[in-house]
Fold Amino acid ABC transporter ATP-binding protein.
Amino acid sequence: MSLLSIRDVRKSFGDNLVLDGFSLEVEPGECVVLIGASGSGKSTLLRCVNLLETVDDGVIELDGTDITDPRINTDQVRSGIGIVFQAYNLFPHLSVLDNVTLAPIRVHGVRRDVARARALEMLDRVGLAAKATAKPDELSGGQQQRAAIARALVNSPKLMLLDEVTSALDPELVGEVLDLLTDLKSDGMTMLICTHEMSFARSVADKVCFLDQGRPLEIGPPAQVLENPAEPRTREFLRRIR
Ligand code: ADP
Ligand code: MG
């Protein structure tokens, strides 16, 4: 069974139809990369999965539960999903450690000592154990993004959503974040990732999905979608970004 099943999702903002019958299956442990032009609906899709937006039509199931059911407990659904954005969104006045423990303590009622131990484990996982007491502005962009990933991992999510997490980084810092995502994939994490990093998609993705005007125009292994696309529009997009 899929861990994430997105079926015929529609979403409009006013008369702007952004997701137009979008369907995608993500199996446990899979890394699925979403590609597509700016405005094609990639971020909206991730936001719908994390219930930051409500869908107009269609179904999203996470681990067999219909999370688009209006009676669903959104906090509970979100606690099973880690999300990381382009901007790291760390709280500047808090240490790295406090950024990571904030939600567990405040939202999920985890005991402070338990939350700290778990956060230190996650900071170690992302190579930032030595920076636990630092403030975000004492970290490089790549380190800040790794701290944001540690924060997203701290609840042991079933699914990680990553929205262009390397786009704001200086080029020399991109690799350390992509290497971390590659490690997470090796550990069996299920991930849905929007990125323009095609070499990452080629080497790590199980499936690549090309979004075109809110529809999944082409879904398949990277060797197919990136190297030998069937659709002229996929070919045109890849030509433009190369
Ligand atoms: P992508 O991430 O692929 O660049 P987005 O999902 O961000 O695309 O945006 C898709 C379309 O939805 C764009 O036309 C954008 O302007 C519109 N959109 C996204 N979020 C909102 C919002 N909160 N309100 C109105 N329009 C939005
Ligand atoms: Mg986007």
